Amino acid sequence: MKFSKKNYLSLLNTLKEKKYRFIMACDWKKYSKEKNNIILRHDIDFDTSYALEMAKIENKKKVKSTYFFLMRDNYYDLYSDKTYSDIIKIKKFGHEIGIHINPESFKKFKNKTNAINQDIKYFQNFYGIKIKSVSYHQPSIYNFKDLQFNIIFNSYDKKVMNKYKYFSDSSMKFRENEFQEFIKLKQNIQLLIHPLWWIVKNSTIKGKLKILFKKKKMELLKTFIGYDKIIKIKNNYN
Question: Distances in Å between the alpha carbon of 166 and those of 106, 152, 175?
Fold first, then answer.
């Protein structure tokens, strides 16, 4: 499958044609005994503007999903004006906002669970959003057994995984044939989609990341434009 906005729209159309109900992650228990439900979720690892663009696409298709944002991320500031604006706009479209947890960011704490809970509380106060759902970053690499949360939805909880068949586009590998066969059964699904792979125009991971890094570089340089005269930087930023 080619990862593009056009094909993402096609994927949404296919699910709607199959009469799938798009549900919030926090509502997984409510619909767990029924069929034809899909938890569409997005882990935002690098950039919130791509998340907003995907949220706009889903809004036009009247699709609801859950967006998980990283705390203590090196690629975007969760509390910058831009990120705040993007997340609030996504929330206003009717999507659920959740927290994406990378244990590497909390390894310096003796009590990781307590540190993460404190960060979640700060996020809730800052955004005025109640967090009901969390997802883990790179679960195949890190061990999350020592982390326990009083939360409604945990993406890789066995109870969730047993009720909702898991599919993902991680590393731009999507089991399309298996997915197409599975939706014919009208069983419940948890589908993880990373906006970066579908929004950025390129056919490879390396190509998409190059575009991302160039975008990040230009955003950083723009913050220094007002200081050019003071620090006497030439206008050649290459």
Answer: 26, 18, 11
CATH number, domain at 159? 3.20.20.370
Place 229 in a pLDDT band, splitting at 50, 70 and 90: low
Whether 28 maps to a domain, the answer reads yes
Q: Is residue 226 part of a domain?
A: no
Domain that holds residue 78: 5-201
Q: What percent of the chain has pLDDT over 90?
A: 71
Whether residue 97 contacts residue 91, with contact meaning beta carbons closer than 8 Å, is answered with yes
Give the mean pLDDT of 136-140. 70
Is 213 within the bounds of a domain? Answer: no
pTM exceeding the 0.85 threshold for the entire prediction? yes
The verdict on residue 65 lying in a domain is yes
